[in-house]
Write a structure and sequence with these properties.
GDP_dissociation_inhibitor, FAD/NAD(P)-binding domain, Rab GDP dissociation inhibitor, RabGDI, FAD/NAD-bd_sf, 19 strands, Rab GDP-dissociation inhibitor activity, Guanine Nucleotide Dissociation Inhibitor, domain 1, about 450 residues, alpha/beta, seven-stranded mixed β-sheet
């Protein structure tokens, strides 16, 4: 390993693979390494045997009749892609879409007063929706018209309301919206994970609602899309992009040390007794002492900011109340169940080439708030009906303690409990800014294959 690289990337999680692809396109010389023998890291999709091996250390019981092992691609961290969201823009601009096939998620639901209701996808659904009474529907319609018509550069659309200084609470009050309506707008449409947004300026929430509406308008039914064969396809697609532009990938490489000099600057990585030199390193928290105590006089590079509890459930039926949908998302706003954080339910099935015929995969997740995490996801589990088997994990959430601009060590954040990718792309943009010193601007590039 005598070569020197611009960047070494550790871990093949989605964040790392997106950056590896983008940096390769940018002309950087990239070496990408992972201790695992598969792509995806924490965001991998596992076969049935890999799933049981990971959680039980044993094969899947034959008595469950779950079908062929190779039919399964079970996401460790299920998330959906907003059709007009930031990840979609990256996929389109990099042309990574050529390596992927997508299917729409059939429906988006919200939990209210003990039952689930579909988030309306058009005006006729809104009129029939049990989420609001007749008068509230009229008020909500006025609110959505305001959001739809709002233009930053046109004061006539602002209705004497300054969204940059006035709070979302004040905007809800302006239109007289009930708490239950605020819940479904703020959590199922703006996709905030808790209620802290409500006393902050209204502008970010307006932009999020607009994004949701644009995503819904693209295909109808729901604003989400999902890759066939599971989310593990996403990091692999970006790895292919990196390879086209000269990136080098090494799987099944144990990382023995991340090396720094006397000034605390990164110099290289040692693996299997060999050291590779590079100017910068990017990686997920597990490669930088996540979960470790600081050595004497040492400093932690990552800190735990919380925990997330996830339950992967295998079922032989669709989630009740979803019209036998082959897939869906359900958001349980925190206020509906007396919590500080929302609970997310996502569901996909054999229709997405991720499970055996006649099986559905549901996941329930939330941020841990008590000493009994599994009890916290009960409101979500109770919506699923009969579960054939269930795998529960409690994972710490990590963030870097420094921005990396001094040490040249750039560390990503753990994946949160949300069931969409917007926070992941926020992390990609933030890392790019720190690594390159300039914002990420997506430019469609001609591949070597096309220019040949």
């Amino acid at each position: 390993m005598d070569e020197e690289y611009d960047v070494v990337v550790l871990g093949t999680g989605l964040t790392e693979c997106i950056l590896s692809g983008l940096l390769s396109v940018d002309g950087q010389k990239v070496l990408h390494m992972d201790r695992n023998d598969y792509y995806g890291g924490a965001s991998a999709s596992l076969s049935l045997s890999q799933l049981y091996q990971k959680y039980r250390g044993s094969p899947a019981p034959e008595s469950l009749n779950l079908g062929r092992d190779r039919d399964y691609a079970v996401d460790l961290i299920p998330k959906f892609i907003l059709a007009s969201g930031e990840l979609t823009k990256i996929l389109v601009h990099t042309e990574v879409t050529r390596y992927l096939d997508f299917k729409q998620i059939a429906g988006s639901y919200v939990y209210r007063d003990g039952k689930i209701s579909k988030v309306p996808s058009n005006e006729s659904e809104a009129i029939r929706s049990p989420l609001m009474g007749l008068f509230e529907k009229r008020r909500a319609r006025n609110f959505f018209l305001y959001v739809q018509n709002w233009r930053e550069d046109d004061p006539t659309t602002h209705q004497n309301f300054d969204v940059t200084t006035s709070s979302m609470r004040e905007l809800y009050k302006k239109f007289g919206l009930e708490p239950g309506t605020q819940d479904f707008i703020g959590h199922a449409m703006a996709l905030w994970q808790d209620d802290s947004y409500i006393d902050k300026p209204a502008l970010p929430t307006i932009k999020r609602i607009s994004l949701y509406a644009q995503s819904m308008a693209r295909y109808g039914k729901s604003p989400y899309i999902y890759p066939l064969y599971g989310l593990g396809e996403l990091p692999q697609a970006f790895a292919r992009l990196s390879a086209i532009y000269g990136g080098t990938y090494m799987l099944d490489k144990k990382i023995e040390s991340v090396n720094i000099d006397a000034d605390g600057k990164f110099t290289g990585v040692t693996s299997d007794g060999e050291t590779v030199k590079a100017k910068k390193v990017i990686g997920d928290p597990s490669y930088f002492g996540a979960g470790e105590e600081p050595t004497e006089g040492g400093k932690l590079r990552v800190i735990e900011t919380g925990k997330v509890v996830r339950a992967i459930c295998i079922m032989k039926h669709a989630i009740p109340g979803t019209d036998d949908a082959d897939s869906c998302q359900i958001i349980i706003p925190q206020g509906q169940v007396g919590r500080k954080n929302d609970i997310y339910v996502s569901c996909v099935s054999a229709a997405h080439n991720v499970s055996g015929a006649g099986t559905w995969l549901a996941e329930v997740s939330t941020i841990v708030e008590t000493s009994v995490p599994e009890r916290e996801i009960l409101p979500g589990l109770q919506l699923l009906g009969n579960v054939v088997d269930k795998f529960v994990s409690i994972e710490p959430l990590y963030e870097p303690t420094e921005d990396g601009t001094t040490s040249n060590i750039f560390i990503s954040k753990s994946f949160d409990a949300s069931s969409h990718f917007e926070s992941v792309v926020d992390d990609v943009n933030d890392l790019w800014l720190r690594i390159k010193g300039e914002p990420l601007v997506l430019q469609k590039r001609e591949t070597e294959l096309e220019s040949a």
